Amino acid sequence: MKGNKLLILIFGILLVLYIIVQLNKPKEFDWTPTLTAKDKNPFGAFVLSSQLKQLFPNAAVQSHRVPIYNVLHNKYETNSAYIIVTAEFSPGKTDIDEMLEYVRNGNTIMFSAFDAEKKLLDTLGLKLQQMAELLQTDSTTINFVNPSLQAKNYYGFKRSTIDGYFSEIKKKDSSVVLGIRKDSLPDFVKVQYGDGFFLVHAAPLCFSNYFMLYNNNKDYTAKALSYIPSGVETIHWDEYYKLGREGASTPLRFFLSDTFLRWALWLTISGLLIYIFFQMKRRQRIIPVIEPVRNTTLDFVDTVSSVYFSQHDNNSIAAKKIQFWYDHIRTRYYLSPQHADEAFVLQLQRKSGVSKDLIKIILENIKRAEAQPKVTDDLLAQLTSSIDEFYQLSKKII
Known about the structure:
CATH architecture of the largest domain: 3-Layer(aba) Sandwich
Distance between the termini: 45 Å
Number of domains: 3
Helix content: 40-55%
Largest sheet: 9 strands, mixed
Oligomer: single chain
Radius of gyration: 28 Å
Number of helices: 15
Mean pLDDT: 83
Strand order of the largest sheet: 1-13-2-4-12-11-10-7-8
Low-confidence stretches: 132-136
Structural class: alpha/beta
């Protein structure tokens, strides 16, 4: 008993010393692109959000943690702007309808994202192209098209990052390119819609703390925002598409967000685990052997497979495998495989980590299976093998 107490005491002292060391070591930066108003890490948007009032002195700045529909529905405005800066912008159908009506009435919406809802981009006649891999160059550089806003040297910062651009601008008559990358690809576009306009930006990290505090980059951010009419009466700043609804955080998230509360929680949990461990050792007793219930899962699988094999319905098996793979892509990666073009292949490669060659093989096998009136054993085997390999590789990436 005394030995147990001594062991607990030694373990407790070591745990406390470890916590003290952890609390006093230099804090590491979090490079996650949150782009939230209160985040002071490199890729937060604390600097920009704190300067909105200075950039728009005559406007009331309102921050929102609800969807755009909730903010704008049944509210008629004609002299305001909505700013959305997020890694991925995925408004729903009702949000998009409300956005279009809002801009049609003479207001401005500016959104900057690596990826945005396809329906909204199609409405604006734009195709947003994501870079397939991290840029390995020393810096990413951008500039404005307007000579009066252009910087002599392109704006950039010493950090590899994902940078997008617009590969298609279909509505030439109502669209104006405002900004470009160093390779002349457009990354900032103005699209007229009704009496107002959209400002669509493909590099949201240009509004982050790190970018704005690097050299004179704050001038770029200010110039980009200067395309919003200076006389607007209200600036709506979005936080919903980054954080979700207000109140969505749990008590556990609150504890984990504070360093001292987090360590207090871990210390409490560790103490409880130590107590439970030694209590279990004290109360050990012989546990009777209980024969496990026979697992009939394999028998069931054998039965079902035998039925399919006896029917030899390759078309049905292939159709189910294809449908299951489609459902997996939709629910896991939020992509629609119905339009399996080159952009779809690049996005699926980026999100799953599986090579483009394997994805193209799967799509080719699916195309062949759907085109043939009767799927052969060889084609079914190829389809099954390629899809199974995709599942295995995507699990390894995670």
